[in-house]
Structure formats: C-alpha cells, structure tokens
Amino acid sequence: MRFLWQVWDNYNPMLHNSSSIVVIGTSAGGINALPEFFQGLPNGINAAFFVVIHVSKTGLGEFLLHRLQKFSNLDIKLAADNETIKANTIYIAPADYHLIIKPGVILLGQGPAENRWRPSIDVLFRSAAAAYGSRTIGIILTGLLNDGTSGMVAISKCGGICMVQDPNEAEFPDMPLSVLNMIDVDYTVPLRDIPPLLSTITNRVIFDEYEIPAEVRAEAELAEKVSTSIDAVKNIGEKSLYSCPDCGGGLWEINEGKELHYRCHTGHTYSINDLDLKQSEELEETFWIALRMMEERRSLLINLSDRERKKGLAFLADTQLHRAQEMEVHIGRLKDILFATKILK
Known about the structure:
alpha/beta
C-alpha cells in the first residue's frame, strides 16, 4: 500500500519529513488554469509547490508571479539558486532556467533545453522524484505536446502520486493525454477538484519509502550539468541512428516501458514526438534556404543572359536563359512541397 492515513495537528512552515513536494507542469492554457488551481488551495498546506509553465523565454516568471498573487494567499516567489525549500510556498521557475530540486534546496540550471524548453517540466519532475521519492506529487495541467510525460514516469517509478487534469475539460488536452497514454495515473480529475484532493493528501498522508531507481537518479543528475561524458549517457540508453537537431551529436534512446525519449551527451533531450517536430522544422528551414538560393541562381542566370545578348552573343544568351527557365521549374516544384503538402506541418 502506497500510504497510510494520519491527521497532522501542527503546521510547521519549514519543510519536514512529512511534507510533500508538489510539482506542476503546464503549457498552453496554463495562464488561466494556474490561478484557478491555486485559488482553491487553503493556507497552511503541508507541501511546497513548484511550477513550470511554457509561455515565453523572457518575462515569464515575473508575469506569472504577479498574476498568481491575486489568487492565492500562499507565499509566491520566483525560485532562486541555492534557496532553502519551505512548505506552504509556491516556487515559480524563472525564464530560461531549469528548476531543479535537491533535498532541502533549489538549484537553477542553465543546461540544454529538454523537449525544446528551458525550463523543462521533465527536468523538474525527474529531479523531484530523485530527491523526494514517494513524497513527490506530480500534476500535469493543460498543454500542448508532451513535456512532463517522462518526468511523470519517473515520479511513478519512485512511488510518488501522479495526477492529471481531466483532458475532457482541459483547454489543450495534449499533455494530460500523453501522460494517460504512458502510465496508470492515480487521479484524473477536473481542475476544480484538484485543490481539495491535494489538500487532503498532503495533510493526512504518511508516504512509504521507495528505493529510487538507479536510472532515475542518473538522469536527474545529468540535468544538473551543462555537459557530460558520452559514457554517462551510454549507461542509461542505447545508441540510436539519429543525430541531435541542436548540436549534431549522437542521440541515445532511453526506453522506459511505453515512454521513449532521446538524449545527447551535451544534454539536449527530446520525446519521440518532439524529435519528429524538431526534425520537421529543420527540414522546412532547409527547404526555405534552398528556395532562396534557387531564386538567386535564377536571377543571376537572367542577368547573365541579358549581358550576353547586349554583346551580340545570342547563342550564349539563349543558353543562360534556358538554364534560368530550368531553374524556374525546380523552384515551382519546391514551392509545391512547401505550400501544397502537409509533410512539414
């Protein structure tokens, strides 16, 4: 049995051995979901809260901080490096920093993006699972794509509690659905029902101790480093056929049951869906560059043709013009690929 019920009579603002670590990940729609979530939480809750939301790389933390202060009486702050963790406090990931949890303390990481994001939900969730095991409660709210799924798998492996917002009511259901497709979560509930459920769990539960799996601890430690050795990545995955879209290094495939993601030794990490999206973006960019070069080539050939004709060299002029017309055919075909197909969408 995962936990035993016990009522806590005395509230201590400092994080203690009975406190929970609540990690929350959201993306599109999160700006609306988070105020409703925190508005429903009571004071004196026996937990510390950590939030990662995908919105932008600049000004995100300050914006969310001011917005949430209107809806919650809990202490809300931007997470700071080497800050001591306190219960009854909401810590928001600063823009462009990974939010990493260690026992009793917060670290801010500047390592590579995971699933194309920094801060990454997976980094937060995985670090919490490695640091606090079964005392970790992971919550995925509305959002696109699947950042947070791998982290939720880590929480589940460490005996933590996994919750997702009911995808039927989520503004963007991708992230909750991704988690549901990978693991059996403990709770799938509407947003309005999460705060009272969470309050009950955090204030009345003693969590059994779980041994932290070696692979969870190892990957959590990798996120703390800006770069690591190839041997370190080899210990947690198998070499794949793919290259990292960001740095060009080899990608290692890490298989956690249904969940599959890729990591290079410099730290870039992708779910299989994010890798597909990144490759599509790079392929489209390559096509646009090729189109620009072909347009410039056609213009140059037409210019050469005009110059030769002015010199009275009709044969050379016609040759250059013919080459320009051939280039026009290729340009049209490339435009067809860019505009008339859905391969890159």
